[in-house]
Amino acid sequence: MNAKDQKLPYGISEYIKEHFREDFLLDVKAVKRLKSHVYYVIEVTKDNYIHTLKFDENGNLMKDDADQAFPEDSHEEPGFGDVPE
């Protein structure tokens, strides 16, 4: 089953419309079949976080992992306001 050719179940589409704006990045990362069930793994962005959402075949949200899209780099040089005199 190819994730790119798969239409999303109605429940998944409705969840994304309700919780995320439609113009946010949306990527179907995987469509997995385990035994007789199908699971969808989808990435969307909101408020500088990347949400990895896992849904069952009925569109029920099973998991929402959120990571910062641009985590702070502890090795970055200080900004102009941070330079000691």
Keywords:
85 residues; mainly beta; four-stranded antiparallel β-sheet; disordered N terminus
Give a quick rundown of the structure.
The protein is mainly β and 85 residues long.
Please write the string of helix (H) and strand (E) elements: HEEEE
Helix content: 10-25%
**Uncertain residue segments:** 1-5
Cα distance spanning the termini: 61 Å
**Number of continuous helical runs:** 1
Q: Provide the β-strand percentage band.
A: 35-45%
Give the C-alpha Rg. 18 Å
The profile of the biggest β sheet is: 4 strands, antiparallel
Mass-distribution shape: elongated
Strand order of the largest sheet: 1-2-3-4
Mean pLDDT metric: 79
Can you describe what's shown?
- The chain is mostly beta strands.
- Helix content is 12%, strand content 41%.
- The chain contains 1 helix and 4 strands.
- It has one helix spanning 10-19; strands at 26-34, 37-46, 49-56, 61-68.
- The protein has a 4-stranded antiparallel sheet with strand order 1-2-3-4, covered by helices on one side.
